[in-house]
Structure formats: C-alpha cells, structure tokens
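Self-study notes.
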Amino acid sequence: MSEKKSIKQTRFSLFDMTLCALFAAVICVLSPISMQIGPIPVSLGLLGVLLAASVLGSIRGMTAVLVFILAGACGLPVFSGGRGGFSVLIGPTGGYIWGYLPTAVIAGIRISRIKTESRKEKIIASVLSVVTCIIGTVVCYLCGTIQYCFVADIGFIAALAACVIPFIPLDILKCIFAGVFGTELRRILRRAGFNPGKRFKDNSVSDEHAEAKIFRK
C-alpha cells in the first residue's frame, strides 16, 4: 500500500517538475529575443513569465522563473540580448529580471479555483488572468525602476520615462495574450488530468476504496 502511494506521488512530482522545466526553457528561448529601445531592451522574457504563471500557477510558475534566473546568473546567455552572468542581475536593468519572481506569483494567483467549462467561465477566467498579469507587470516595473534609480543614480520619474512608459502598450498586449492563451492551455492540461496551480493531492486512498468496492462486487 505504501509503495503504491509512493509511486503515485513520484509520478505526479515528476510531471510537475517537467512542466516547470519546460516553461523555464520557454522563458530562456524568448528572453534573448529583444530590441534595444533607450536604456532598456524590449524583450519577450516577460511574455514567457506571464505564460508560465497563467498556466502553472504561483508556485510552479515562480519555480520556472527561478530556474531561468539561476541559469542566467550562472552565465548562460538567456537574458535579453543574449546576456548572462550575475553582473546583469546587479546592473541597472537587473531589477526587471529578478522582478519576474513576484510577477509570477501575482499573475498565477487563484487560477486553480477558476473553472473554464462553459463559455462564460472561459471569458471570466481569461479576464481575471489578464488583470493579474497586468498587476504582476506593474510590480515588475516597480522592482526594476527602483534598482535602476539606485544604480544609474537618476530620479524616479526620469527612470519611469526612460524604462517603463515606452513599453506599456507592448506589455499590455503581452498580458492579454498570456491571459487568454494561458487560460486555454490550462484548460487543456486539466482535461489531460493535471490541475495547474493546485498542490498535489494524493488520491491513493480513494483509489483503494474504489478497488475494494469492485473486488466485493
């Protein structure tokens, strides 16, 4: 009995880790795709972060982001513009990278409790996901701008004008795409038997009861 329980927990645990690794890889692929606009490059890294959070939830989404940041800190060229190394994280724009962590937590809040069966539920889930993505992005702005002010030694308003305002329209589009597409992808995963954003729940006891009933019949 205990052996069966252990196997079931390991199986789901490996599936969780596989999804986290997959989305970490997605972020690593998207983030280097960038275009320089002023002091801050336009990167698709935020899109990958929002997708990970929208699909996996806060904990798993944050785990995927953490793997991405650690990979970049170790020197892999996964940050915007193909950069890598710990120096990027403590540089002027580093706050926008580690700011991905609270962004993932916020963007993935409560997604496990949102049903997506009917068309109305899908619309509500998508709208809520877009809203949490926008709030998470604002937090990322705040983290990055504060660090940019200290490292570059400029005022907060000037930093906003240079590092945030030009990117708002594109980032809103990222939030909309991540919220809508992430909701649909999460629904597909649920149909496949995975409930993103929810802690692992062992069903071995209920399975054993079901097997006992079948045996008695």
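Second protein, same conventions, sequence then structure:
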Amino acid sequence: MSGEVLERLRRLVREQGGLIATLVDHRVGGGANRRPAARGPAAVLADAPRTSDRREEYELLVEAIYEGYLLHYGRARVVRALEADLALLAGDRLYAIGLARLVALGDTLAVAELADTITLCALAHGAGDARLAEAVWAAGVRAVGWGASAPHRRAKDLVLAGAPEALDAMLTCAATTAHSPSIGPRYC
C-alpha cells in the first residue's frame, strides 16, 4: 500500500505544476541510495474509523503533509530538492496542499490536529529531539484516525512545556486507539 500511495502523491505533485512538479523524484523508491520507505502515516489511517469513508483521500493528504515534514527534517521519498532552501519551500508547499485537501473535506478537527502536529514537530526538532518529533507524528495521525482524547491533549501540552515525560506520553498515544476499551486515565 505504501508504494501505491506514494505513486499517487507523485502524480498529485506533478499535477500541481510549477517548480514543485520539477522536483518529483521519478526513480522508484526515491533512488538506489535511499533506504526502503518505512511504513508511512497512510498505513495507520487504513483501518481508522474517522477516515474510513474517505480513506484514499485521507491517505493521500496525510502523506503529502508527511512528505512536507520529511523535506524539512528528514529524507523525502517523492520530492528531491538538493538545496536546503528549496527543500523548505517545497515542504511548505506540501503542507499547504495536504491541509487544503483536508479543509475541502470539512474535517476541522483533523486540520487542527495536523496543524498541531506540524508545530509540535518543529518544537521537538528545535530542541534536538527527533525521536519526540516522530512520536508526535505517530500520535497526531492516530488522533486524526481515531479522534483526539484528553490524554493526547495532555501529551501535546507536555511537548509545549518541554516536559521530560512528553516522549513517553506521545509514544503511549501513538500506540493506542482513542476508543479502545482498555484505556485507563493515563492512556490515549
């Protein structure tokens, strides 16, 4: 599934035209020197109840936003920008493409959740904590698919405060569905 969603993302970026379309990496898998793509956020949404009625659209838009994140902080899978400034601009454009598609679906809760995710990841990376940023991403996507919870909001507050327990809180939220019957007061 990951490869299929990434191919759809390649088509979407090409359809946008302009400079970003020229940055699409046409090599399958993003080139021979890249590691195989890890399971992306779309895989989390595949079975999510909040997004099941428009699964393919949610998968595409969240992968667009995640690709923007990777252009800012990691190794993008679809877009290849050799200069740092160009990577930031392309990342911002992909954030905008994904969020605009989400707005078109009318899912304001998911818009707010992914905007928070982008912000909290920037804070985590600014603090030099890539592991926290990845946990924020995973928990944010989980909240889009299953709904936010009070513990997830608390975990976001912990990240904002720079609290040492923020990582554990986010990892717990990332691993737990919001409406699981086994959820206790500490869990998302």
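Instructor comment on the second fold: Residues 1-106 form one domain.
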